[in-house]
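Exercise 7 asks you to align residues with tokens for two separate proteins.
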Amino acid sequence: MTPDIPPRRPASRRGFTLIELLVVIAIIAILAGMLLPSLAKAKGKAVAANCLSNVRQMTLGAAMYAGDNQQRYPLSFLDVSSGGGVGTAWFSFIRPYAPATNAFLCPAKQRKPGIKYTYIYDPTKMVAGYGANFQIGGCEFTGGGWHMSSVKDSDVVRPSSTVYITDSGTKAKDTTDAALCVTRTSPEKTEVWLLDDVGGFGGGTVASDEANWGGPSIRHDGRGEVGFIDGHAVGMKSSQWYRRWTPWLNPALGGESGATSVKPRMPVGY
């Protein structure tokens, strides 16, 4: 006679306890906290790389424009009005040579809702976030009495250390101390398309709240993308090159020249 075999009990299915779930969630949160700064840094580097590519395109576009125009760089602006604000600026001159419109917009300087933009010389009200060196482009504004020819390739003594274009947008301080002229705490203007020496012709507006003129921006983790007359571009701290009467903007000197800083050139009559 076969003995009775007790029925087999199903295996117990034990779930996670609340404490175990909280521990797992805490571990995930810790790992996420460790990874997010790295991801943000990687994203920042990608944005800076995109911006550097833009600066290269615009710098090379200006060089190609010069090649088609008696080796003379485009005017910073050509104003055809009596009171100012109507005409053409450097970005319009070089657009045919840098046809990608995104190249004129720094990916880290987007339009913000609720801000009034007063960008002039462009019917599309483009906000570039880049400034061209006024010492290179000069200007023509008969109504205001401003006459300053753009330079030729042959006028630039040190093309590899003479800035043509850079991230821009700061309200700079008028000082010869490069460590204080533009810093991470310098106010960012809504828009800037003209870069000038803080002690130059546009220096008063560079150091003011005026939106069109400014100093370099270091919005890419303490650096700004800088394009040079010879066509190369690199990320630099503003303290490496920007200050009152800086040779880096002066086509007759160039940076790293060791020359004594001198007052930059001015429009005729100034």
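Second protein for Exercise 7:
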Amino acid sequence: MVAFIPFIVLIALLVCCISVFGNATLDGASQVSLIIASGVSVLVGWCYKRLSWDNLDKEMTKKVASCTPSIIILLLIGAISGTWMVSGIVPTMIYYGLQILSPQWFLVSTCLICALVSLLIGSSWTTIATVGVALLGIGKALGFSDGWTAGAIISGAYFGDKLSPLSDTTVLASSVVGTPLFTHIKYMMQTTVPTFVITLIIFFITGMVMNVSGDGDVQLFVNGLSHTFVISPWLLLVPLAMGIMIMRRWPSLVVLFLAALVAGIVAVVVQPDRIREIASGSGAQGMLVLYEGAFRTCYDSTALSTGVEALDKLVATRGMAGMMPTIWLIISAQVFAGALTATGQLHDIMRYFQRLVKGTASLVASSVGSAIFLNVTSADQFLSIILTSSMFKDLYAKMGYEPRLLSRSCEDGGTVTSVLVPWNTCGLTQSTVLGVATLTYLPYCFFNLLMPFVSITVATIGWGIRRTVVSASSALSSGPKPSADFSENQI
């Protein structure tokens, strides 16, 4: 029970922070809570398990270093959010989208559009940061709350991410378990497609019965966008080129860098007045004004006047600087994960999940629950998938289940729920990019919420689950070997 002490402390601190700071909890209070919980974890390991400080320090440092690629991606996404808005790319997408999408079909269309884009490019992060931002603006104009729109965006993006052969998490889950990639994808469809169909039905019914009053805002937004930005379908060549690069498996960092760079150049060439507006008051002259404005678009917050207050808030950006609270929180979360791993507390808790296994349903429920738990504690979906597969791989084999059942369970619990945890790298990124708090969109992410339950239900029914002739009682009595299930080398 000692292993639960840091979690109890963290939960208590977060509850207090939410009650005191509300939506501003992620501005600093959550980070402090994670650091305090990390200190408690280290103290427990130091005093109770007599662990050396060098090992604790090494593990926490390693965890923080592991999130470096995510931090760089976040900074590039911050630059894209600024350059794609000021260059007119996102305003163009919103402008045409407002004239195509109707309120009744908006939610289900949003979900389907994000699903298709994410399926093609294999990235929920990129889908949400580009198409998702534009759809959020359309939703505002049509009168939908940010929670409903963000829920439809995230549901679609994570459906496509989960089934795309280009997705990092899909490739990771299949490879760490030892399941062929397309076997893994095909098997996931048994749980993923029914969940997505249910999600679409919910959004369809909601769109038909919800009374939204945004007709007047639509025309205001259209007029405001056309008077503020140069609107042209040629600007859509930038996201099209980005999608082609991703489909050709270019490195994500290279694609994001080029997307920000090209959009910055487009902003200077196509929207020079907006660039000068951003740099106004600096005292720069001539070409230096464009140079300063372009750089500020990448790293600083921007505010443009469109004549429509709601639209002004939509086209405002935060750039790279706006990502710093998120990066701070990611680092704090990784320190906490490092402390739990170094002290062995994470391993001790994971063993409780294995003890709950009695049959097929409980095995899948334990592995899915483990992945969700690790999303909360390790704050990273990749670590959640890796650790869950490591902990349960031998147990699935001993009980005679195919590896594809474990790889599917890892994704059903790990990939989709990561975005629902406020301090997880996915939850932090999407809430920052969309400007919608995690707890605001969480109730409307129906695909992400339903996925674990559908996975367990399918396992309970036994649909598509095959076993070799192995005695379940002997498998359970032999039990997993902790030293083999969880080791630093496997991670």
